[in-house]
Amino acid sequence: LVVCVAGMFAVGISLALPMIVVALACLVLLYPFATTQFGGMSGDLAGFFLQTAELCMLVALVVVMKLVV
């Protein structure tokens, strides 16, 4: 995780910061949902989180690239 974040910051802080914020937002929103609806995290929910976070981070990257570049 640290190496990936460092690599993103090496590419550009204006691109990395929104992606990290979006990934953390996905985590903050998923965890209470998983605990109340499913009684905790499972492997399926972890996979769902991973796919959702990756797609949201990609959308954030595209939006920032259109605004910044």
In short:
With 69 residues, the chain is mostly helical. The protein has helices at residues 2-11, 13-38, 43-68.
Alpha-beta content class: mainly alpha
Report the radius of gyration as a whole number of Å: 14 Å
Helical proportion, percent range: over 70%
Instruction: Count every beta strand, where a strand is a DSSP E run of 2 or more residues.
Output: 0
- Tell me the fraction of residues in β-strands, as a range: under 5%
Q: What average pLDDT do the residues reach?
A: 91
Q: What's the SSE pattern?
A: HHH
- Rough outline: elongated
Low-pLDDT ranges: none
Largest sheet: none
Task: Give the number of helices.
Answer: 3
Distance between the termini: 26 Å
Write the layout of secondary structure elements.
Layout: H1 2-11, H2 13-38, H3 43-68
Helix pairs in contact: 1-2, 2-3
Q: How would you explain this protein's 3D organization?
A:
Helix 1 runs antiparallel to helix 2 (13-38). With 69 residues, the chain is an all-alpha fold. It contains three helices and no strands. The mean pLDDT is 91. Helices cover 90% and strands 0% of the residues. The longest helix is centred in the middle third of the chain and has 26 residues, at 13-38. The relative contact order is 0.15.
Keywords for this entry:
69 residues; mainly alpha
